[in-house]
Amino acid sequence: MKSPIKPETLLACLLAVAGIACGPSSQAAALPLHLVPVPQSVETQPGELQISGAVAVDAAEAAPDAKRALAEALAGLGIARDDAAATRIHLQLVEDAALGEEGYRLVVADDIRLSAQTDVGLLHAVQSLRQLLPARAQPGYALPHVVITDAPAYRWRGLSLDVARSFLPVEYLQKTIDRMAFFKLNRLHLHLTDDQGWRIEIKRYPKLVEIGGASAVKGGRSGFYTQEELRELVAYAQARGITLVPEIDMPGHVQAALASYNELACDDVENLSPYSGLEVGFSVLCLDKPEVVYPFVRNVLEEVLAVFPSKEIHIGGDEIKHPLYADFVARTAAMVEEMGRTAIAWEEGSVADTNPDVVFQLWNDGYDISAAVAKGHPLILSPCSYFYIDHGNYAGQPETYDWCRKEGVPLARLYGFDPAPFTTAVGIEAALWTELVHTDAAADNRLWPRLAATAELAWSPAGQRGYAGFVQRVGALRGHLDAMGIDYHAEPDLGWAK
Ligand code: ACM
Fold it and tell me: What strand order describes the sheet that includes 87-93?
């Protein structure tokens, strides 16, 4: 950042943190620049743009999502639209290879110009503009003259949500998508199946949701999503720049499937009841019955792929030991490829002989993935001691795990992750497992503000990052989090402790 923050804006920010309103109401003071993730380049320039009445919006027809996002942002701030207004906001599609698929430029001068090569790039520009503006309506607005040029470091900036152990309602997923978009996160990975529940309707196997959808972890919520609901959610997310990535976890973590269709288990398996406990690694599709298992896998994947257009499809592959495990991963990944998509598997899947475009998701700290890296396999980085946010926001937080790191995963810890050594990484994903997360409020508490730190690690160049600056910037966005109704953890590092 060429000019990180002006002294006067720092003062305004300090006053705001102290809860003292600042700036005269007729001529609003220029607002501080508190962008998360921090952009590639921010050049502040002398002067400011006052917005006191309506604005005109000049939006490219080919960018309907950004146009809608801007309209919603302006309406939320009570800024009226009038084609004859002196202040104009331009949304422009431009050819500028340096911006890539998702980059954008945002210029505030006598008017506001957002430009990008794609609608998604413009969506990100609109989110930056939202962050430059206050969280709530006020009589006037002033923006510092600034030129922001920005593009992501990684193409995969994700959250994995376990909706299998404890179900999360569609409305909560929509809210989470909106909040992720605000921080330019772009992948929502849904862990749709596990021992404790099967959450996606599969029309050829109705009992998967009739039986498998009716269970949950003890104390958690049960339920399932119809394919229609998921299609609508896919569209909702796409319009906000987010791809939904489905996971069908196989060949282990399948007790809900076995309880629904007993023939998927080997004949000597006695316990075929729905499961609500916390153990892992005990259930497995009967790999000795390929004539039963592979048609099931193919039929399920066909329906899943018809709902989710994502190029990458997660096939699970964690926490199961079986002599035919590697063969299963190789066959299933090849099946996904045959269907025109690319498989993701948890790190253990790297023992299988797969095409080098198969993606592995790291989760155990220190897992030796070097052989897969040598073959060129892309990686998604979720090492548990940084990104397992079912772990506490602080050591000893009630209803959190600590098996990976006994001190939990505080904000500063997560922010301190360095992705640079992972040369084939395509990005970073935080993971919220829900054995101990049974309400929307608990989910919010685990996600925020740690997802904002995940977003910055995955989007911003290393040279611009730094915890002190992050704390100052995300701290200043508290009003935006409040306006979005987020029930975040009152993080003491941000001065949010109650
Ligand atoms: C995992 O935590 N079993 C991927």
Answer: 41-51, 141-150, 104-108, 112-116, 87-93, 55-59
Rounded to 5°, the CA angle 121-346-392 comes to 80
User: Mean pLDDT, 10 residues at a time, over the chain (498 residues)?
Assistant: 38 36 47 88 95 94 96 97 96 97 98 98 98 95 96 98 98 98 99 98 98 98 99 98 99 98 98 97 98 98 98 98 98 98 98 98 98 98 99 98 98 98 98 98 98 98 97 97 98 91
State whether the beta carbon of 319 lies less than 6 angstroms from ligand 1.
Answer: yes
162 lines ligand 1 (CB under 6 A): no
Domains within the chain, CATH numbers bracketed? 3-150 (3.30.379.10), 156-459 (3.20.20.80)
**Best residue for ligand 1 mutational test, from 346, 359, 432 (most atoms within 8 Å of Cβ):** 346
Q: Say if residue 323 is preceded by a cis peptide, omega within 30 of 0.
A: no
Nearest CA owner, ligand 1 atom 1: 318
Which residues are known catalytic residues?
A: 319
